[in-house]
Amino acid sequence: MGTENPNPPSYPVRPAATPFAAMQSTPPFLSSGPVAGSESSSFRPVPPASSQFRAPPFSSGPVVGSEVPAFRPPPSGRSNELVGPPPSSSSSSSHGPPAAGFQRFPTPSLPSVGHAVPQRTGQPVLSPTTRPAAGTVASPPISLLSQPQPPSIPMGSPPPSMKTGQVNGNIPPPAHQLLSSSRPNVQPSSPPVRPSYVTTPGISQATIPGYVNAQPNTVAQAQPMQPASFTLQQRGYAPGAPPTPFLAQQRSVNPPSLYSGNQMQHHVVAPPTATSPGLAEDFSSLSLGSVPGSFNAGIDNAALPRPLDGDVEPKSLAEMYPMNCSSRSLRLTTSGIPSSMSLASRWHLPLGAIVCPLAEPPAGEEVPIVNFVTTGIIRCKRCRTYVNPFVSFTDNGRKWKCNICSILNDVPGDYFAHVDASGRRVDLDQRPELTQGTIEFIAPAEYMVRPPMPPLYFFLIDVSISAVKSGMIEVMAQTIKSCLDSLPGYPRTQIGFITYDSTIHFYNMKSSLMQPQMMVVSDLDDVFIPLPDDLLVNLSESRNVVDAFLDSLPSMFQDNTNVESALGSALKAAFTVMRQLGGKLLIFQNTLPSLGVGRLRLRGDDIRVYGTDKEPASRAPEDPFYKQMAADLTKYQIAVNIYAFSDKYTDIASLGTLAKYTGGQVYYYPSFQASIHKDKLRHELTRDLTRETAWEAVMRIRCSKGVRFTNYHGNFMLRSTDLLALPAVDCDKAYAAQLSLEETLLTMQTVYFQVALLYTSSSGERRIRVHTAAAPVVADLGEMYRLADTGAIISLLSRLAIEKSLSHKLEDTRNAVQLRIVKTLREYRNLYAVQHRLSGKMIYPESLKFLPLYGLALCKSLPLRGGYADAQIDERCAAGYTMMALPVKKLLKLLYPNLVRVDYSVVNLSPQTDESNIIRKRLPLTADCLDTRGLYIFDDGFRFIIWFGRSISPDVVRNLVGEDFTGDYSKVSLSPRDNEMSRKLMKILDKFRESDPSYYQLCHLVRQADQPREGFFLLGNLVDDQNGGANSYADWILQLHRQIQQNT
Amino acid sequence: MVKLTMIARVTDGLPLAEGLDDGRDVPDSDFYKQQVKSLFKNLSRGQNEPSRMSIETGPYIFHYIIEGRVCYLTMCDRSYPKKLSFQYLEDLKNEFERAYGNQIETAARPYAFIKFDTFIQKTKKLYQDTRTQRNIAKLNDELYEVHQIMTRNVQEVLGVGEKLDQVSQMSSRLTSESRIYADKAKDLNRQALIRKWAPVAVVLGVVFLLFWVRKKFW
């Protein structure tokens, strides 16, 4: 049945909707209208029972009951994939014999269910073909719920060779037997409420009352089913919720769907072998030619899955726990937490989370702020968890049970509120901390070691000859000056400057002066501070002096011929000045530090060490001075951002440790030239200075007993085993944490995570941002795979790989990445392939379909690619430091950049071309996609590469580039010109930039066949192609496939 | 010279503002800040402290004034002229009341007026050196009768609360003891009564018994 499902595209996307769609195909019940109506009336009491849902309000609610088309709210490929298909078969089983079901179960509840079903069928029938099928299959009434899962149907653009459900349909997945054996009465003979369909409890709940009145006939019947289903769910997730009468009567309904009522369908009970041929297959497969040895046989390059829609976040978790914090702030690598250590060890991918504590909420949304200063913040007395939506109130509201350690806490008198029959507090709607996953508390005085610090910016500027020559100083001074008005924290903002070459220059910025006074200290070994105050001044008071300083800075050093750079000593001086307050230290470094403490050797990049054991040493920091310094800086709440500009070796590996351990960031502008890189530096420095920053922060992630975060990756200093010290945090930084199981067997059904970030805002308020999330514990590996999140996995995996590359050879690191992917897929294959005899196919879970490609992209990314000649050592290290801090979405874009063709929309002069359309048409990253007549933009979030095809019309080029379009493109920059095409292109570029404001994407123009420029900028970055000795995507898949097949 | 400046609300001891990078050259500034905090706590318990006072602590001395339910406190060297310190506090008070006077009662979070630290910083610098012309002039002005301001030791001040605690403890002990005493006295009374009348009762009983026996057998 499932297979012949005639209308895959019209599948309602939301699981909740699916039953309706399916039910429409069973006509027999049309006649039962009146009965249904009466039933419906008897069902009105149900809603209250279901009211345990703490977050009922879902605006989309009312839609549910109405017409089918309305059911496709947010198109979520994944959930869809999970639940989409079942309705067809289930409808056959459950509604086919509806009458029978009805009579057999005279209890009020069941019939209603039976009715609900047909009732909905009363609506327009989707496709006539399904009807007879439904009738026939229906005859065995017990053939319940076989849950087919043709996975790829709903996904964006299913590659032709992807197998959809039918192939192995009649062999149930193993998990299935497992489950049914473990639960003897799984096999209900009752007709069927398929609880699993309704994934979003909130929705149905909200609709109920309104609908009963509004559309008594059609909708009222629909409802009875919903409450049932989600109470069931509720029971699964929150044990102890009072079972509703309804639920009680339906005991036969699938108790097994304990965790994830919606996701387990494919496991559910008796496979009607003959009747439903299209059984579930919850994985995708790729035919790779039957014989592993036969190269390229049957591999269809275009069919390989590619993330052309960008990062698709799994929605299932958010639907399961609507009160979870957004995936912007916390993403788990798999939402199914393994229930035992042995299960965890079979999950070969990293298990953990990516946390971006200050992720920007989308426009229009704000993090609610709660003030608990008078009562004190409500926290668990044992584990110090903050009060959150998942705590439960008992004892009439006098106690609350911590969801993380399940201890009972007293509710303080001021916070007391009565609890209604279903366990909800009556004041729930006034308590955002009990309904929202992300919340901000205003911290009382106990959370302050000292009064909130003012925002503080200190600039440490290298003014040696290369800095002057490149024009960096001028751009920087202008930029800082233009930002002075928008620095956060007015009027408390503090600012200070030190410049250095072979000596250190201090500037007295006392507000009463007209001009800054410069003081030169040349003793590098024992740096002293020439002035106790006024090196660090209040910006609003000394504004004139600061302006005067920035105006004169470029000219002050324009004749400087000093080539030395005493960074280490200058750093110590800056540290002494800043240590009272902390703040942000921005270092502008142009050459290798050559004098004083912390001088670095010209280690260089030696081709001979590649492939030997000495190789990783060049990527690891050399001088312990910088790490030591970073530790001191962190202790005094100073964050360091490094701006490096040199065209020669600067040892970013060593300098970067400053940023790494102080929660900072590395910006690298190789061979900086003011004329070319001006805009980039200006934009990025402006963002660094003006974005909302959280100061003197600490972060801790708490999680339920039995699991523990063990390793953390990113830019921070670990203060104790689990406390991350972050002198400055902002929305562009994410942190990864690895999870491990502490107990061999987890007994609970849900694991909770709580991220708490205590920080001082720029306005001088101490606040705590708390994100809370819940995830189900699963006992089945297949479930873990299904709930996996490729984005988070790749994020964590790349951090691990980059860290590994500092102590291992690149080759080994890449192999380790590959091995992990191979192990993962092999494990998955072991899970399913044997039964399915898929020897010639590579199978992978739908949720991980992009994993191999991202893995390949990771191996080809700047920090890990190739060997000596493929990337400069400094660029490698800088990219490594950057990738360690990137949030998931940006990282994925960097790994698999956007490639779009724009010549049509540029040349087409009609003004109303829709730019947003272009963005959606992403192309696979392969040279085959490049048309010689085309104009393409390659956007990896950090730069744009604009590729001009060989046979593109010269007019276009002239219009865009100007008269010298035949010249050397490395010297040409793209600037707005006075013609329609140029304006169009600029508009497109601006649109791209808008979507990703954290870095400035500088345009590089590349002409086809303009080697080596083309190779360097574009061809080397086309992930799908073979480049520099690395595999192409197809080869990579073949290679993975071969390795997977070994030892299986 | 001013080492530390803190402003707090007297009603609940909530800190409202504090000088920027205070205690830079005080070796154990945290210890003194702690003392200040407990001082504020004492004040918030509503003991009737004079509105101006100086409190000695180690090598330093706290000066504070309480005005409009806000306490302005500074810590100086002992050698620093008292008059100047109070003048400094007076300056702070005037500016603070001008800027935030109407929000003081409604401030809900600690350090709600932390922005005031820039003013504190500025003013502090003016009072840095006792010998500037301006400060000497101030010293000569008889603005305040500072001699009458009480000077006490910090231990005493912080001890007041302790002593009160002791007294209340003692009194509560006294109550319970006296209750016990009353119980015991009642008990004793009863016993005395019994002792007094018991022999008489026994004799009467015997007599009645005899009477009864005689009646029965005769």
TrEMBL record, chain A:
Which residues belong to any copy of the VWFA domain? 456-685
Which key words tag this protein in UniProt?
Endoplasmic reticulum, ER-Golgi transport, Golgi apparatus, Membrane, Protein transport, Transport
Localization recorded for this chain is: Endoplasmic reticulum membrane; Golgi apparatus membrane
Which GO MF terms does the UniProt record name? SNARE binding; zinc ion binding
Please list where the region (Disordered) is annotated. 1-201
Q: Name one Pfam family in it.
A: Sec23_BS
The processes (GO biological process) annotated in the record are: COPII-coated vesicle cargo loading; intracellular protein transport
The record's annotation in CDD domains points to:
Sec24-like
- List the record's Gene Ontology CC terms alphabetically: COPII vesicle coat; endoplasmic reticulum exit site; endoplasmic reticulum membrane; Golgi membrane
Q: Where is the composition biased (Polar residues)?
A: 120-130, 178-188
**Listed Low complexity bias regions:** 31-42, 89-98
* Presence of keyword Protein transport: yes
What the entry lists under PROSITE patterns is as follows: VWFA
Pro residues: bias regions: 1-12, 148-161
Specify whether Endoplasmic reticulum is a keyword of the entry: yes
| Primary localization | endoplasmic reticulum
Q: Which InterPro entries match?
A: ADF-H/Gelsolin-like_dom_sf, Beta-sandwich_Sec23_24, Gelsolin-like_dom_sf, Sec23/24_helical_dom, Sec23/24_helical_dom_sf, Sec23/24_trunk_dom, SEC23_SEC24_subfamily, Sec24-like_trunk_dom
State the similarity comment.
Answer: Belongs to the SEC23/SEC24 family. SEC24 subfamily.
What name does the UniProt record give this protein? Protein transport protein Sec24-like At3g07100
Q: Which organism is it from?
A: Sesamum indicum (Oriental sesame)
Taxonomically, what lineage is the organism?
Answer: Eukaryota, Viridiplantae, Streptophyta, Embryophyta, Tracheophyta
In the UniProt record, the gene name given for this protein reads LOC105165315
TrEMBL record, chain B:
PANTHER family recorded:
VESICLE-TRAFFICKING PROTEIN SEC22B (PTHR45837)
Q: Which InterPro entries match?
A: Longin-like_dom_sf, Longin_dom, Sec22, V_SNARE_CC
Query: What is one cellular component GO term in this UniProt entry?
Result: Golgi membrane
Protein topology in the membrane: Single-pass type IV membrane protein
All residue ranges annotated as the V-SNARE coiled-coil homology domain in the record: 135-195
Q: Where are the transmembrane segments?
A: 197-213
Source species: Sesamum angolense
Q: What is this protein called?
A: Vesicle transport protein
Question: Is Membrane given among the entry's keywords?
Answer: yes
Q: Keyword Membrane, does the record have it?
A: yes
A Pfam match: Longin
Give UniProt keywords alphabetically: Coiled coil, Endoplasmic reticulum, Golgi apparatus, Membrane, Protein transport, Transmembrane, Transmembrane helix, Transport
Task: Spell out the molecular function terms from Gene Ontology.
Answer: SNAP receptor activity
Alphabetical GO biological process terms: endoplasmic reticulum to Golgi vesicle-mediated transport; protein transport; retrograde vesicle-mediated transport, Golgi to endoplasmic reticulum
